[in-house]
Write a structure and sequence with these properties.
Layout: E1 2-11, E2 14-24, E3 29-34, H1 40-47, E4 55-60, E5 63-64, H2 67-70, E6 73-76, H3 88-98, H4 103-116, H5 132-144, E7 150-154, H6 162-177, E8 181-185, H7 189-195, E9 198-203, E10 206-212, H8 213-219, E11 223-230, H9 233-237, E12 242-247, E13 252-256, H10 262-269, E14 273-282, H11 285-298
Parallel strand pairs: 3-8, 3-9, 6-7, 7-8
Antiparallel strand pairs: 1-2, 1-4, 4-5, 9-10, 11-13, 11-14, 12-13
Helix pairs in contact: 3-4, 3-5
């Protein structure tokens, strides 16, 4: 289990991370989110022990993280960190050696992952000769080659087509099933909802949202109603408590202030023609993120 306890990090007079705490259990995928400059990268660097001049405490399995513990960590950075003049084989040998792995073990695992991602023919190709998507696969392999106990994934799906996103998802879930502790960060909220049970959203280094996603959604009063049928948007907008009505390709999303508005919306919709769908759902994580971060900025 990873424990982050009351960590604070300054760069001069600038407070980059402000008294941040969270836990990630074995076999759990935890979301660490925020807009650019929120403190995510600094937090990752403190966990990796790339920064050590901070207050607070970070432990993995009740041990403070040092160079021995970092051998058990895999980190996929948002920015490309590959050495483009190296071949794929040279690159992964380099990263594996940094984790104190033996060459034979590295090459055996490399062959497995290259085959898994269907890029075995690129083993002796230079990184710069690969497409962005295939470079992302190599970067992912570099993060998991040591079978990490703690896996940090910052925008792991960058540059991938939908088929390869699905394969990455399968691999991430396999590490979860094996008991790895996983931190997942993305600007795509649908990816976060797909993987994470718990999350922290940072703004200016401070947690503005923290907890289980289901609880966060329940506490957020605003709801959405999805409707298919013949409705008139301007009539719906006149109902007290209706915030907005959005027209999609074949349905409408009615945004309401809280559950008490549902009955009035239903009364109107029940009088309309060709209604084939009326579903009430929690607000999306993306809506909550925008609302909560916006509120925090205004304070």
């Amino acid at each position: 289990m990873l424990k982050v306890e009351n960590i604070t990090k300054y760069y001069g007079d600038f407070k980059a991370v402000d008294n941040l705490s969270f836990e990630v259990k074995d076999g759990e995928i935890f979301g660490l989110l925020g807009i650019n400059g929120a403190g995510k990268t600094t937090t990752f660097r403190m966990i990796m022990k790339l920064l050590d001049d901070y207050s607070g405490k970070i432990t993995l399995d009740n041990k403070e993280i040092d160079y021995n513990i970092t051998n058990k960590i895999g980190f996929l950075t948002e920015e490309r960190s590959l050495l483009t003049k190296m071949t794929v084989k040279e690159q992964i040998l380099f990263y594996g050696n940094l984790k104190d792995m033996k060459d034979n073990d590295i090459l055996k695992k490399l062959d497995y992952w290259l085959d898994r991602f269907e890029i075995s023919e690129y083993k002796d190709k230079k990184i710069k000769e690969l497409s962005k998507g295939n470079q992302q696969k190599i970067q992912f392999i570099s993060a998991i080659i040591n079978n990490p106990k703690l896996l940090i994934l910052d925008e792991p799906f960058s540059g991938l087509d939908p088929l390869n996103v699905e394969e990455f998802k399968r691999v991430i879930l396999e590490f979860k099933e094996k008991g790895s502790t996983i931190i997942f960060s993305s600007h795509r909220m649908e990816h976060v909802e797909m993987f994470c049970e718990k999350l922290v959203i940072l703004l200016k280094g401070k947690a503005v949202i923290s907890g289980y996603i289901n609880d966060i959604k329940k506490q957020y009063r605003k709801k959405n109603i999805r409707v298919k049928g013949d409705i008139i948007i301007k009539d719906l907008k006149q109902i007290d408590g209706v915030i907005d009505v959005e027209k999609l390709a074949n349905e409408y999303i009615i945004k309401i202030e809280d559950e008490s508005i549902i009955q009035n919306v239903f009364k109107y919709v029940s009088k309309c023609k060709n209604i084939t769908k009326f579903e009430v759902e929690e607000a999306t994580l993306n809506e909550i993120f925008i609302a909560k971060v916006g509120e925090a900025y205004e304070k």
